[in-house]
């Protein structure tokens, strides 16, 4: 089974290819180009490197949000185009869960935080004591302060003392988080800090093994936030 | 040789896909309009439009291929609008089209939305003679193009601020007539008299082919407030005068251009080309000057993907294919 995973939810663009239990190709770019320019050439390159065609892929996977609204749509529109043309299933996975999967079998509580602009982050908390992450509580858009309190209550509830934060939101608000937690806040090595398409592929494989697919026509991104216009008018989801 | 092109269009608030054979025969034409959603806001909200596009794009494309009676393998190319338009909206269609074409191993062709509107005319009026002066007039554009042939064009004028359709929307909202503004103003105007208010014909006597409509909108507001103070604010009369002021400029400029460039035909395209007064006045002026005026039927006047697939056909024949890193552009 070949699984092709693509991610353009944050400033990172990534693509990875699994053949059964083996990662056979991965691409990563965090270079400030628009995803419209980077993502499909990346897919083309890893398929060429592995002498495969898009139609040989059995399952497509994409990060479904939260993240940059435009980035999420570039990724999902591409994933729908791939899955529909190849007539293969599609799996969408939370960007925050993909990030949490950078760490496994760790007693640390993991907070995954994306820079959501406007002084906020998208964040969630995960237990990564097993091979695959278990989310504790909701995915949210909130201030870094609110997220600190959210993590504190989960630290207390799970009887943990130490934690680690992953994602570009940690880079933006590093000082604030360090001030709040002091030495309880650990820092991971750089290769685990940002979302990796290989992590997405690994999570997608777990779902594919259970035939747990999304509707490749109707799948929508998880934005968490409404558009400004919807907020102003108070119309809710449309 | 038979060439089947799948067209995809998401530049504004319609998610559209179509299959067109040899640039002329429409095999399918699917349009999912978001008009009811944007009516809530009194205009197109770019973020909301982009969200709806990514939800609907797969359904719309699948339906278009199904309606065409063809299989994926029968498609020869995938064409998509990549400029101009709402950037977030364009990126949905473009990203989908890239992946779809790539997976089917077919060439990708990027199309200028304005040229698409021109090809809507060629789809329905293959007899029209060149050179042609074309007025593209919609919620996003007001442009005059000179076409020497099917594939040679130049832009000779455009709006320096609001598009004509945008002016219709803004004035309709100001007067409380509803959304979309074009049909709402037209309906109100039918019950009023032009000339009871006095609005400017902006740029009509300048010797270039540019337009400006934001001043007209401001003039409507000023005249309206004055009339309200005097207790003479008749909304139907204002709608009629506004529609006349806008249409007279569009017709006047287009015909000036047709004379200057010795055009043999005049075509109109875009959503505002559905306005009856514009159609009537342009046709009458064309008859006086011996220049036949053409415009598309209503379904091809507004945004659709059949026109995109049709516009891609000459590009297909010339082998003008886009690379996978091609981007979308908000402006021309």
Instruction: Name the beta content range of chain B.
Output: 15-25%
Question: What is the CATH topology classification name of the largest domain in chain A?
Answer: Nucleotidyltransferase, domain 5
CATH architecture identity of the largest domain in chain B: 2-Layer Sandwich
Unreliable runs of chain A, pLDDT <50, ≥5 residues? Answer: none
Span from first to last CA of chain A?
Answer: 37 Å
The largest interface is: A-B, 40 and 39 residues
Give the total of domains of chain B: 2
Structural class of chain B: alpha/beta
Radius of gyration of chain A (Å): 18 Å
Give the helix/strand class of chain A: alpha/beta
What report would you give on this structure?
The complex is a heterodimer of chains A (238) and B (332). Chain A is an alpha/beta fold and 238 residues long. In chain A, 36% of the residues lie in helices and 25% in strands. Chain A has two domains: 2-95 and 195-233, 2-Layer Sandwich (Nucleotidyltransferase, domain 5); 103-192, ATPase, nucleotide binding domain (Nucleotidyltransferase, domain 5, 2-Layer Sandwich), CATH 3.30.420.40. Chain A has helices at residues 35-49, 69-86, 95-100, 144-158, 168-172, 174-181, 197-209, 228-233, and strands at residues 2-7, 13-19, 22-29, 59-63, 90-93, 109-115, 121-127, 134-142, 163-166, 185-186. In chain A, a hairpin with a 5-residue loop joins strand 1 and strand 2 (13-19). The longest helix of chain A has 18 residues, at 69-86. Chain A is globular and about 50 Å long. The termini of chain A are far apart. With 332 residues, chain B is α/β, with parallel strands linked by helices. Helices cover 45% and strands 19% of the residues of chain B. Chain B has eleven helices and ten strands. In chain B, the strands form two sheets. Chain B has a five-stranded mixed sheet with strand order 3-2-1-4-5, sandwiched between helices. A five-stranded mixed sheet of chain B has the order 8-7-6-9-10, with helices on both faces. In chain B, helix 3 links the parallel strand 4 and strand 5. In chain B, helix 5 runs parallel beside helix 7 and helix 5 (164-174) runs antiparallel to helix 8 (235-260). Chain B is globular. The chains are: A alpha/beta (238), B alpha/beta (332).
């Amino acid at each position: 089974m070949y699984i092709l995973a693509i991610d353009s939810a944050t400033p990172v663009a990534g693509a990875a290819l699994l053949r059964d239990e083996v990662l056979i190709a991965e691409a990563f770019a965090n270079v400030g180009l628009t995803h419209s320019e980077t993502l499909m050439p990346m897919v083309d390159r890893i398929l060429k490197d592995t002498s495969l065609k898009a139609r040989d892929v059995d399952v497509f996977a994409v990060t479904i949000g939260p993240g940059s609204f435009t980035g999420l749509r570039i990724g999902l529109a591409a994933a729908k185009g791939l899955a529909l043309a190849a007539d293969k299933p599609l799996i969408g996975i939370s960007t925050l869960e993909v990030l949490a999967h950078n760490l496994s079998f760790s007693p640390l509580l993991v907070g995954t935080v994306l820079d959501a602009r406007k002084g906020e982050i998208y964040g969630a908390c995960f237990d990564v004591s097993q091979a695959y992450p278990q989310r504790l509580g909701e995915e949210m858009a909130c201030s870094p302060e609110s997220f600190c309190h959210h993590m504190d209550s989960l630290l207390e509830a799970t009887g943990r003392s130490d934690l680690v934060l992953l994602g570009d939101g940690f880079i933006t608000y590093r000082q604030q988080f360090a001030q709040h937690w002091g030495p309880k806040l650990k820092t991971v090595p750089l290769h685990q800090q940002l979302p990796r398409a290989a992590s997405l592929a690994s999570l997608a494989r777990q779902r594919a093994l259970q035939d747990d697919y999304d509707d490749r026509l109707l799948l929508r991104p998880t934005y968490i936030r409404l558009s400004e216009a919807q907020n102003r008018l108070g119309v809710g989801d449309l | 040789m038979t060439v089947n092109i799948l067209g995809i269009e998401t530049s504004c608030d319609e998610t559209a896909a179509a299959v067109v054979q040899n640039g002329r025969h429409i095999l399918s034409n699917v349009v999912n309009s978001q008009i009811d959603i944007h009516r809530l806001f009194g205009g197109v909200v770019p973020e909301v439009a982009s969200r709806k596009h990514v939800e609907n794009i797969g359904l719309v494309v699948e339906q278009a291929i199904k309606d065409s009676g063809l299989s994926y393998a029968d498609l020869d190319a995938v064409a998509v609008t990549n400029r101009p338009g709402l950037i977030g909206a364009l990126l949905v269609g473009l990203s989908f089209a890239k992946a779809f074409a790539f997976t089917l191993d077919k060439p990708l062709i990027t199309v200028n939305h304005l040229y698409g509107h021109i090809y809507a005319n060629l789809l329905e009026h293959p007899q029209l003679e060149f050179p042609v002066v074309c007025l593209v007039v919609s919620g996003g554009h007001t442009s005059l193009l000179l076409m020497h042939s099917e594939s040679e064009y130049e832009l000779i004028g455009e709006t320096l601020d609001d598009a004509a359709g945008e002016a219709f929307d803004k004035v309709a909202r100001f007067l409380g007539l509803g959304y979309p503004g074009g049909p709402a103003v037209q309906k109100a105007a039918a019950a009023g008299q032009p000339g009871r208010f006095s609005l400017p014909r902006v740029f009509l006597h300048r010797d270039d082919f540019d337009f400006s409509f934001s001043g007209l909108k401001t003039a409507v507001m000023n005249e309206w407030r004055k009339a309200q103070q005097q207790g003479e604010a008749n909304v139907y009369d204002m709608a009629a005068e506004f529609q006349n002021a806008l249409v007279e400029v569009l017709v006047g400029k287009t015909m000036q251009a047709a004379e200057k460039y010795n055009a043999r035909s005049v075509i109109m395209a875009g959503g505002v080309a559905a306005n009856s007064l514009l159609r009537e006045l342009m046709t009458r002026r064309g008859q006086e000057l011996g220049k036949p005026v053409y415009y598309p039927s209503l379904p091809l006047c507004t945004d659709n993907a059949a026109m995109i697939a049709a516009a891609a056909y000459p590009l297909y024949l010339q082998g003008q294919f886009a690379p996978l890193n091609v981007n979308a552009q908000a402006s021309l």
